[in-house]
Amino acid sequence: MKKRFFVIGLIVTLIVSACGDYNKILKSTDYEFKLKKAVEYYEEGEFVRAGSLFQELVNIYRGTSRADQIYYYYAKSMMGQRDYLMATHYFKSLLKEFPGSQYSEEAQFMVGYCSYLLSPKPRLDQTVTREAIESLQLYINLYPYSDRVDEANRLIDELTDKLVYKSYLNARLYFDFENYKAAVVALNNSLKEYPDSQYREELMYMLLKSKYLLAINSVEDKKQERLSSALDEYFSFVDEYPESKYKREVDKFYGTVADLLNYDEQQETNIN
After folding, report:
1. How much is the pTM?
2. What is the model's pLDDT at position 1?
3. Short-list 235, 185, 175, 236, CA closest to 209
4. CB neighbours of 151 closer than 8 A, spacing ≥ 6?
5. Coil vs helix vs strand at 63
């Protein structure tokens, strides 16, 4: 029991001593010493303490040859605290104010990486995701021979997949709510923006079905045009996916549309 109390007492003493040392560093006006300790705290993973010191030193060293170093370590300390917005701000400041800095390459990558970490779930607004892709692509363009190019490309692929899924979700939303006129626009946009989408078959199916349902429920003066559009969409779909799991259903669409248009495929083939 005495040994346990001794150990606890020793730990408390060390903590109090460490806090006392840190407070002395905070109050010190020896900024070179303070910078040295800030870097030590950072390297030891004490990101909160390091960040507090670097935050003060940012203003002290502003306009000097050491400012880029302070910006860099402060940004990295913010990353350690998962404050990616603040980290991005200081990485960008470093790039803007010190374009020739030794930290420029890593700062450029970190701008993209922080945005990657801030990228939200696909159902939310994807502005940050697009910013991350742009920053990472800029990094690749600026440093094409960097060891981090493969990692940057991997992150871009992951972020792009998120945008593709977001586009798919947006288009499907109109379809699910049976707003077929809006669905046609959204589905077309998704297919144009991401022609190699992994959801391409389903998107094309929903586009065909939307055009079909829009056509057969259309007013007479628009019906002919919409039926023709649905027929064209059918041919596009079966040409690209002749063995689709939706084949039986879309063939029924074709039968109905062909009857309403008095369309004879055999006759059309003979004419051509």
Report:
1. 0.84
2. 56
3. 175
4. none
5. coil
DSSP state, residue 64: S
* Residue listed under structure tokens 């003979």: 270
Q: Is 113 exposed, middle or buried (0-12, 13-18, 19+ CB in 10 A)?
A: buried
**What DSSP string runs through 74-126?**
HHHHHHHTT-HHHHHHHHHHHHHH-TT-TTHHHHHHHHHHHHHHH---TTS--
Q: Which of 195, 187, 110 is nearest to 160 (CA)?
A: 195
How far is C-alpha 127 from the chain's CA centre? Answer: 8
Percent of the chain with pLDDT over 70: 90
9, 101, 112, 122, 180 from 143: Cα distances, Å: 53, 14, 13, 29, 46
Can you tell me the distance from the alpha carbon of 128 to that of 190, in angstroms, rounded to the nearest whole number? 19
Q: What would the pLDDT profile of 132-157 be if each residue is shown by its tens digit?
A: 999 999 999 999 999 999 999 999 99
Q: Largest Cα–Cα distance in the chain?
A: 104
Cβ 117 vs Cβ 136: under 8 Å: no
DSSP code for 178: T
Structure tokens at 247: 């084949």
Whole-number CA gyration radius for the chain: 30
pLDDT digits (tens, 9 = 90+) for 62-90: 989 899 999 999 999 999 999 999 999 99
